[in-house]
TrEMBL record:
Native source organism of the sequence: Panthera leo
Name the record gives this protein: Transmembrane protein 229B
GO biological process: macrophage activation; response to bacterium
Transmembrane spans: 13-34, 46-65, 77-95, 115-136
Family the UniProt entry places it in: Belongs to the TMEM229 family.
Gene Ontology terms: cellular component: membrane
Amino acid sequence: MASAEPLTALSRWYLYAIHGYFCEVMFTAAWEFVVNFNWKFPGVTSVWALFIYGTSILIVERMYLRLRGRCPLLVRCLIYTLWTYLWEFTTGFILRQFNACPWDYSQFDFDFMGLITLEYAVPWFCGSLIMEQFIIRNTLRLRFDKDAEPGEPSGPLAMANGHVKTD
């Protein structure tokens, strides 16, 4: 077990980016169904979402590690939601300067400059709860065994989670 090391920040960023990208596609598909009853479930996103989600969740991971013993879960989720709004506004504002912002909330009642909207506060809050409790906590538990052969279990890691591989 001595060779098992935590994932690097770049590896975690990659997992967070892919997770955010997937969630964005699924959310937009579900939103399209709920609002327009579109049975095709067309989920959309932008390649910018990889950078936006990967970086944001990596920053939230740092927040989680600093706040987990200091404030209750719901307060942390509120902080993450506020961070999400700040990050969404900032990245949207920058991308808009290059005519590259993939979202526009101008049609919502409680939008600010079309870059953020209060209508998404509850989904962002719920997403932050899921992000901390499942995505970040489990990603931080992942380990890389540099001595293992690809596709083969090695030593004590083969017995992880109570499962033992037998031939």
